[in-house]
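User: Fold both of these, please.

Assistant: Here is the first one.
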Amino acid sequence: MTQLQIARRGEISEEMRICAAAEGVEAEVIRKGVEDGTIVVIRNSIHKEIKPLAVGKGLRTKVNANIGTSRDHADLAVELEKVRICVEAGADTIMDLSTGGPIRAIRKEIIKASPLVIGTVPIYQAAAQLLDEKKAFLEMTADDLFGTIEDNGKDGVDFITVHCGVTRASVAQIERQGRLLGIVSRGGSILAHWMDCNHEENPLYSQYDRLLDIAERYDMVLSLGDGLRPGCIADATDRGQIQELILLGELSKRARTRGVQVMIEGPGHVPLSDIVANIQLQKRLCEGAPFYVLGPLPTDIAPGYDHITSAIGGAIAGAAGADFLCYVTPSEHLRLPTLTDVRDGIMASRIAAHIADIAKGLPGAADRDARMAKCRKEFDWQGQVDLSVDPETTKKFLEKSESAKEEGCTMCGEFCAIKLGKREGHRR
């Protein structure tokens, strides 16, 4: 049985107990959330080497890191080093988005190396395999696509992004309204072109029950992808994006009826003023399903700094109810991320997630901040390093003031406000 089917029987699985312990909540909270569809417990039923992960309402905001090869850079050793960095930097999940090299073999090695939950986007493999065979991806058949999804399940992939809401009707909404940047999702673009050239409906939508069969078989969580997400703030919250979201709400309900767990993916590039409304709309239309957001990025003009842009949007989205942040690296829109890019992207998203948890009033979320304040008051430098989100970087930056006898850093020295405040306290 799937986790959702177990929860509906009123039973608490071992996976639910593990997740409850990790979150510091009662196991019944996890069970009830899974039953209601507001929490997902992610772990492929044959991927027993990892701990399951719970995502959703009332839980810590999670962070995903994307890795994977391209046709220009297909080096397995580099991707395995990225896995190590993801674990070390504190990511909760890893998505393998490989589009180059022997994709299935690379995925198997990443799964073997990772102690974290693994996600993929199967259509990338389906399209890439056709190119390897000197065929156009427009020749892809439904059997090609569902065969690849089945392979992902057999390999132990825990959750998959599937662009089921990219339909002829939702793409037509974009064409009628017009967009500045068009479709920017790789999966969404592949499917839109495939439908246009083949004059057929998206098989992920028209044969949705076939997808549910596979997901149920392996208890893979379906991450219903935002293939029509806005790629610039001018295109945010348009008819195409909303039409897709309405379809995802309907499909998420069908999945839960079958006992398949579902998350919903969201935008994208969204101006700051629209972020909260986007979260509220998703939660309303999708009946509280966990929301997995890319960013969002509230400006388009910061290439090289998009991890910062994303962290700003992610903190606001998380505070408004988003449950899962997909990191964005400094190299977004520019290149395949380097090892340093991966680490920087994770740290930025982890900061955003923590800020969101404080804003949500998550029990204990601000405790670490209070301990940090106490360490600063006592000039406990090692305590400050240990409590920081990135101890390695904190230690590199730290310069204790010789003039103030280490009671302060080199910015203020003898004029350190905390040091001066202690003197005033002694006089009183």
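And the second sequence with its predicted structure:
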Amino acid sequence: MPIPNEATVRSILNEVRDQVVSAIQNAWEDWLASDFNGVWRCKRSRANFVWEQIIDHAHAALLDHGDVHVIDGNETMKFLVQDTVLFRFKKADETGKSSNVATQLALAFHDHEQDLFDLPEVQRVEVVYKLNRLETKIDDICVVARDGDLIAWEYSLLDAGEGVVPLPMPEPMPERPAAAIVKLKGAADGRKKRQT
């Protein structure tokens, strides 16, 4: 199957957009409110905690949705929407790439020539959350299609102004007057002497 078609994925995932965004935002709030926030030293532990919470929230919100099938297995959970779009949740870096242990299954998820999960015709994408530079809040929630190690396309699930707060622009620096040129007495005379 070719790389997922963005227009198709957008129209289908738009049906569950609110539930997906809420699952991620609620999971992050769970992390902030937890007794573990600030205690665990490993980012991987935080990512695991948030992922588990995302799955719980998404499972609860989408389980009874008529067009969504929850597929549990291989130590992950995937969501199939309208028998066409298969997605999984991940944390991503600022470029939109998720990091995975390079198992055969993880690599195959982004190789659209391979049939996975006995679902040969589905379009596989990731729903990712991106943190701000200080990793204190979610900056964006995106749908990402990859082609192997490359990002084929990406779009945000957050509406303009919702969830992503633009940082204020820094005040422009006042113009500094040009520094006065200081000439040493006799410096110009030395140059003239060298030229003659």
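The first strand starts at residue 68 and ends at 73.
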